[in-house]
Structures are given as C-alpha cells and as structure tokens.
Specification:
It is a single chain. This protein has 709 residues and is of the alpha+beta class. The protein contains 19 helices and 26 strands. A hairpin with a 6-residue loop joins strand 25 and strand 26. Helix 4 (55-80) runs parallel beside helix 9, helix 4 (55-80) runs antiparallel to helix 12 (230-256) and helix 8 crosses helix 12.
C-alpha cells in the first residue's frame, strides 16, 4: 500500500466528516452561537471588571437575574406563538406599584397582595390576547398601544398615591426573605425563576399544549387547518406573559420597596433583545426556555457591565441595540442558510477499498439462466414483496408496499387475503416457536402478528443509545431482517442509522458503517446493540447448529458470522467476501447449507468511485440523485454456500425477465420461493435433489425435524 493511500485511509478513519453533518442536524446546535456569545460577553466583562466574579456581586446579579429572566420568559412565550409583547415594561411597573399599594395602603397580607397583583397583570395580558388572538389585530401595534395606556395609568396612580406609600413601610419575615433572603445560597427570586423555568421547559418541550403553541408559531394557517384552537392558544400565551411579568414585578417590589416613574422603562427592549440573543426565532415556532435564560444572562451582564464601567448614559441602550441587531442578523441568516449548509455536508462518503470480485465466467458464480423456469405467483397482485416465508401448513406470506402482510393459500397460491395490516413497509419476517409472525418494519421497528387473533403489537422500536453518539441512535430507522435463536432471542439488522428506507442510495453512496446488529430478549423485554459500524447489514440467519448467526453486509459484498456461544462467543468473522454482487437475505437450506439472495451486480465504475470519497461528495452536491453512481439492482441471482463460506452453486435470471431483482428466498418442501422489493410478483422454482419434506419452520422448531437432509 502506498504512503498516500495509507494517509488517505487514516484521514477518513480518524476524522469522520459525518460528525459535522450530524451536529448541524441536531436541534441543540441552535444554542451554539448564543452560548458562545454569552461566554464571550461574560468573559470580557469579567476581565474588564476585577471584582465581577466575587461572591457578593454574583449574589446581587442573580437576584436581578431572577426578575429579568421572568420577563424574558414572558416575552419568549408570545414570540414562540408568533407574536410580540411590547407592554411588558409598563405591565412590570404596574405590578411593582400594585404590590406596594396592597401592602402599604390596603394592608393586605403578602400572599394575597402577590396573588391580586399577578391576577391584574394577567388581565392586561388577557386584553392583549383578546385583541391579538380573537380580533386578529397586529401584535406590534396592539401591545404598543397597551404599553402607552398602562404606562399612563401607572403615572396617574403614582401622582395620587406615591406620597402616601413613601410615608409607610411594610415589613414581615416573608417579605424580607423575598427581597433580601433566599434558600441556602440562592436568592429568593432565583429560586422562583428556577421553579418556573423547569415547569415552562417541560410544558414547551414535553406536553401537548406546548407543542401546539410551537406549531401555531411555526405556521398559524397550517395549525388552524389541523383543527388547533389558534385563537385560544394565542390568547393564553399573552395571559401567561402577563402572569410572568406580574411575578417579576412582585419580586422587584420586594427587593427595592419603591416605585418611580422610570420603573420598567426600556424593559421591553431588554427582554426582546435577550429572547432573540438566546436563539429564539423572531418569526415564532422555534425556541426554548434554555435559550431565553441564556439571552437573559447576556443582557444582564452587558447592562451591568456598561453601567459599572462608567460609560455615558446613552451607552447602555446603544449596546443593547447593537446586540439586538446582531441577534436578528444571526437569526435571519442562520435560518436561511442552515439547511443549505446541512445539505452540503450531511452526505459524507468515506474511503472503501473493495477487493476484486469472484469471477462470473467460471466456478460457482458462472452466469446461467436457471431462473428462466420460475413459476410466477400473484403477478400484478402484489407490490414490493421484499421477503417471503411459509408456515407449517404450506401457506405463503409476503409484505407489500401498502403496509400489509398478505397470505397466499396453499396449494396453488391463487387465492390470498390480507393477513394483517401493519402500516409501515414490511421487510424481513420469521415465525417464532408459537407460530407468531415477527416482522421488521422499515421506519417503525420490530413488530409481531399474533397467530391467535392476528393482532399486531410492537415488540421494540429502540435500542440502547451509544455513549459517544452525537445523534440519538436509540430509535430504529431501518430494521430490515431478523431471525430467532433457539433460546428465543431475536437478532435483527438495522441497515442504517442515518437514513430512512427511501434514502438507501445515499447510504450506498456513503458506504460508511452506518448499520448494526441488534438483539431483543423476550425474557427481559430489553433491546441492545451487539455490533456497530456495519456496511448496510442485512439477511440475518441463525446457523443450523444455533451457535452463531450469519448476516450480510450488502455494500461490502460479504457475509459475516457472529458467534453466540462456544469458545469464540462474541467474536465476529468474515465468512465469505469478494461476492460479485450485493448480498441480501440469507436463509437455511435443507442439506445444512444456506441460500443467499444477490440483489444486484457490482460495477467497475462504482468500485473505483468507492476509493474516491471526494469525487462522490462532489457528485452528491452537484448532480441530481437519479444520476448518482450507486449499486445496480437489476439482475436476480440466488447462491448457495456452506458453513465454511464455500459457494456451491448459483441461479441467475440472466435477462432480468422473471425476477429482475431478488431480495429473498425460502426453501420449502423441495421448492425455492423468491421475493423482490421492486417486483410485482413472487416466484418459485423446483429444486432437484433437495429434501421434499423439509421446511424452514420444522428446521427451527420441529424437534427431530431440525437439520434433516
């Protein structure tokens, strides 16, 4: 191997390009820029102010942070639903005044005063909600008017009661704790914020009302067409905003115990800047509580830093204005270009050196026309029968692209019925000891059809997540074939964790180890991943002795063995490689050997391109997908091999007329039944010299019938 080739191989082994694409595909990547900006701001201000990180300063900031962050959460709530609330500053001032009025002049208890204050500020939010949600007025203008009116009301109230309030002073243990105390080392306002933030995060990300709110923010018309109560939810968002602002005003009153005409002025700009700086989309439908909290930290530190640095009075608003401009710019540009960038980097071909294929002009793979005599079953009556299987009564089963399991009745298979409707694309199938049908369903996972009542139930749709995986690989994307071991454990393959079923050409273009072998244990109801980084694994088959499983790596053109017991338990070995085509399903033969479907032939052009990942990357970016180089699934072939990996014979459909693409086969009582995911038929051909009494079901579960030759 040349030095250049070695370096190239090492480069793709230790620097996997697909990590970048996977990171960009995650929703949390939206937090990267706001988080980085927050760290930079805190770091710069901390360097400019020597005492910034002292305990006393952090305590003061955290008390202010609790109040500001509640207002930012209020603003975020209406932004998520596609609105804006410019009245938060005036409403905040109203809450501050009302709390002090109820305590000092009305002499009400703290709890009652706080409740009434929050109720009134929620009423202001309700007015906004009715105008914006039900009367469909523009949020910007409506809340701007509310800002002016509420500010005028506060000014009038201050003229009337400010002197009386200044002459009285309220004190109680609860009030003092709210203003100056806390819980352990945390100020009271910070504790309140933490509780509210947890509830809000759960509501927005884990509850139906939160999802509906985000759906309305994403597209109000679409949400309405779906039947969501758009007007009520929009109105509710403004009520919640008013309540959160009221809580912040109560905490502010407890801390300062004073009211003035400048209270809350400019707060709407600070809250809006924080919400957008945190990464919440100004257009609605995209955002979260953590984003709002990050933005609140940034704005608080910026405002406090500008003030303590002694800059002139106009510096604070100017800094916030510039920060808001930056946030809007990032939001617009990021939303516009993120998916463009993702489409360019997500498809990440890797270096794959394919060995020379076995010859097809001589030996066991010599091309022939033995499949020209195939009998055709259900021609034009079935679509995409990827796998076929027979029960102990000789009935034939296959899936179709409509999500059905079809049963064809023996002996002539001319009549059929829908045995069960699963909903997804049925792929590999297997019968368990009790006659229940286990099915791999593309995009859904592993399912079971009960023999007793044909009911469909989910067996598993997830496995354990990889510790160091960037993406959540616990969900099953493309479970494609399975088999059952003598102890009842179900072993199945997942072809790829990066792409869905209809995107298999992209996985072939990458030829990266995106697949895995998974085990489900019915005794413990647990699913775990056995093998990872496999190149489109497929065709799982339990060996005749039950001590190992065989499976194919389709794009790798090889068949592997994984040992379940014995001295090599847990070991993986290549049983047969250099196949001339792409192996698919593997199943037992009556003489102790195995059948494998070859679903397409290798081409020199693709083999060469696999050694040129940069070429394939450019191809994926510059030309349409239907013009890519990817495996040619155009010639049907079935081959037979033994436990040593030696191939004994092959059967071809040379002219691609009877079965142009074969993905599965089952031997049953002297016949070989053929399925193909792109076919509109099932085929069968008589096998000479094979056991007429042997069936797959008896081989697995028939006791003495197992392994009969």
């Amino acid at each position: 191997m040349s030095l250049a080739s070695s370096i190239k191989k090492a480069r793709y082994r230790f620097f996997p390009d697909h990590i970048v694409g996977e990171m960009l595909s995650k929703s949390w990547i939206d937090n990267a820029i706001p988080f980085a900006f927050m760290i930079v701001v805190v770091g710069v201000i901390g360097l400019l102010l020597p005492n910034f990180f002292t305990g006393s300063n952090i305590s003061i900031l955290s008390r202010q942070y609790g109040e500001l962050a509640l207002v930012v959460l209020a603003m975020t709530t209406v932004i998520l639903v596609g609105g804006i609330d410019l009245s938060v500053g005036s409403n905040f001032a109203l809450a501050n005044f009302l709390m002090l009025y109820f305590l000092n002049l009305a002499h009400l208890p703290v709890g009652v005063s706080a409740g009434l204050t929050i109720l009134i500020t929620s009423g202001v939010g309700l007015i906004n909600g009715l105008l914006v949600g039900y009367l469909r007025l523009r949020a910007f203008l409506t809340t701007l008017v509310t800002l002016i009116i509420v500010r005028a009301v506060v000014d009038l109230l201050l003229l009337e009661y400010a002197q009386d309030m200044s002459m009285s002073f309220y004190s109680s243990p609860l009030w003092d704790m709210m203003g100056l105390g806390g819980v352990w080392i945390f100020p009271f306002s910070f504790v309140v914020l933490a509780a509210v933030a947890v509830v809000a995060h759960i509501a927005f990300s884990r509850s139906g009302p939160g999802w509906r709110l985000l759906a309305i923010g994403g597209s109000r018309r679409s949400a309405f067409n779906m039947g969501l109560p758009v007007k009520r939810i929009v109105c509710s968002a403004y009520v919640i905003s008013g309540a959160l602002v009221g809580m912040a005003g109560v905490l502010y009153a407890a801390r300062l115990s004073g009211a003035g005409t400048d209270t809350g002025i400019g707060l709407e700009i600070s809250a809006l800047t924080a919400a957008i700086l945190g990464g919440n989309s100004l257009g609605g439908g995209r955002g979260s509580v953590p984003k709002a909290l990050m933005g609140a930290v940034t704005v608080l530190v910026l405002s406090n830093g500008v003030l303590r640095l002694g800059l002139n009075s106009g510096s604070g608003p100017m800094v916030l204005g510039l920060a808001l401009l930056f946030a809007v710019f990032v939001d617009v540009r990021w939303m516009k270009n993120r998916h463009k960038l993702l489409s360019k980097v997500y498809v990440s071909p890797t270096l794959m050196e394919m060995p020379d294929p076995r010859p097809t002009d001589k030996g066991p793979f010599e091309i022939n026309d033995r499949l020209s005599d195939v009998e055709v079953i259900a021609l034009g009556e079935v679509e995409s029968p990827e796998d076929v299987i027979l029960d102990e009564d000789d009935n034939l089963y296959s899936g179709n692209r409509h999500g059905d399991i079809i049963r064809y009745f023996a002996p002539d298979y001319k009549t059929h019925e829908v045995y069960a409707h699963i909903g997804g694309a049925p792929l590999g199938m297997s019968f368990d000891r009790n006659g229940n049908l286990l099915v791999c369903v593309g995009g859904m996972g592993l399912y079971m059809v009960s023999k007793a009542d044909r009911s469909v139930s989910k067996v598993t749709d997830e496995t354990n997540r990889s510790v160091f995986s960037v993406v959540d690989d616990s969900r099953l994307r493309l479970a494609d074939d399975l088999d059952i071991a003598p102890d009842g454990k179900i072993y199945f393959s997942e072809a790829t964790i990066r792409y869905e079923m209809h995107d298999w050409p992209v996985d072939a273009l990458e030829s990266r180890g995106n697949g895995r072998i998974i085990c489900y244990d019915p005794a413990t109801k647990k699913t775990r991943t056995l093998l990872k980084n496999l190149v489109f694994p497929n065709g799982v088959c339990t060996a005749h002795d039950g001590k190992s499983i065989l499976f194919a790596e389709s794009w790798g053109c090889r068949i592997n063995r994984y040992w379940l017991e014995g001295p090599r338990k847990g070991k993986l070995e290549v049983l047969a490689d250099r196949l001339p085509g792409y192996p698919d399903n593997i199943n037992r033969a009556s003489d102790g050997t195995y059948w494998v479907a070859i679903m397409g032939m290798r081409s020199p052009a693709l083999d060469l391109a696999l050694r040129m990942p940069d070429f394939r990357r450019r191809m994926a970016r510059r030309i349409a997908a239907d013009q890519w180089l990817y495996p040619n699934l155009n010639i049907g072939c079935v081959a037979r091999f033994n436990d040593k990996g030696e191939f004994l014979e092959s059967m071809w459909d040379r002219y691609a007329t009877n079965h142009p693409m074969i993905t599965s086969m089952r031997e049953h009582k002297g016949w070989l039944y053929l399925g193909g995911i792109t076919n509109n038929r099932i085929g069968r051909i008589r096998l000479e010299g094979m056991n007429d009494g042997w069936s797959g079901w008896s081989s697995y579960w028939g006791g003495s019938a197992r392994g009969q030759a």
